[in-house]
Specification:
single chain, alpha+beta, 7-stranded antiparallel β-sheet, two-stranded antiparallel ribbon, 11 strands
Length: about 200
């Protein structure tokens, strides 16, 4: 028979077991109770999109050379560590972007279009060209995005991709599910805008 533990030893063993169980919980369970603040921009641990609670999967900063351009946060229904895992999630999704410097909006729209194209097969991208042109027009009409201003890209099942700039929805949603994933490819695809930002959005750092 195995030796019986004394009461103090048994309590210590029980406490250690509890700590090990907590440490084994997914990173998202811990992140869901703590906001992230990046360069003064606060990303709440949870948001509601399409009537569903989403949790912060990760947040980071987009750099161009040594300059900080914007911060971004990815919200999902459960943790995902790759673009493929994000695509497999059936529920709503959100990308939240807040500018850290003033930028020409039309130039930003062009960069996003190029980022989508760089991360897709040519045939797949060609099918989305009408939506890409409309997205570019949305940003062009705003002329400039100033430091501290935010835009959201939400995917809501049955509704589509809704782009919101400075708190105002921009026209009708983009209906194709492929359009939202093409947009996410800018940050999470094989040729992301910023490799370090990709890692932080996917919670790998």
């Amino acid at each position: 028979m195995p030796a019986r533990l004394s009461r103090p030893a048994a309590l210590t063993a029980l406490a250690l077991t509890g700590l090990l169980a907590l440490s084994a919980l997914p990173a998202m369970a811990q992140a869901s109770t703590t906001a992230q603040v990046l360069h003064g921009v606060r990303y709440e641990p949870g948001v509601e999109v399409g009537g569903q609670k989403l949790l912060l999967n990760g947040a980071g900063t987009r750099y161009k050379a040594v300059f900080k351009v914007y911060t971004a946060g990815l919200y999902l229904e459960q943790p995902a560590r790759s673009l493929q895992e994000v695509a497999a999630l059936p529920g709503p999704k959100r990308m939240s972007v807040t500018m850290l410097r003033d930028i020409d909006s039309s130039e930003l729209g062009k960069l996003f279009s190029r980022g989508m194209e760089d991360n897709m097969e040519r045939s797949a991208f060609s099918k989305l060209v009408p939506g890409v042109l409309r997205m570019s027009q949305i940003f062009t009409e705003h002329k400039r995005l100033l430091a501290g201003e935010t835009f959201l890209v939400d995917w809501i099942p049955g509704h589509g991709t809704q782009i919101t700039v400075k708190g105002r929805p921009q026209g009708e949603p983009f209906k194709e599910p492929e359009f939202f994933m093409a947009l996410l490819g800018i940050w999470l695809g094989p040729h992301p805008a910023d490799e370090q930002l990709k890692k932080t959005l996917l919670g790998s750092e």
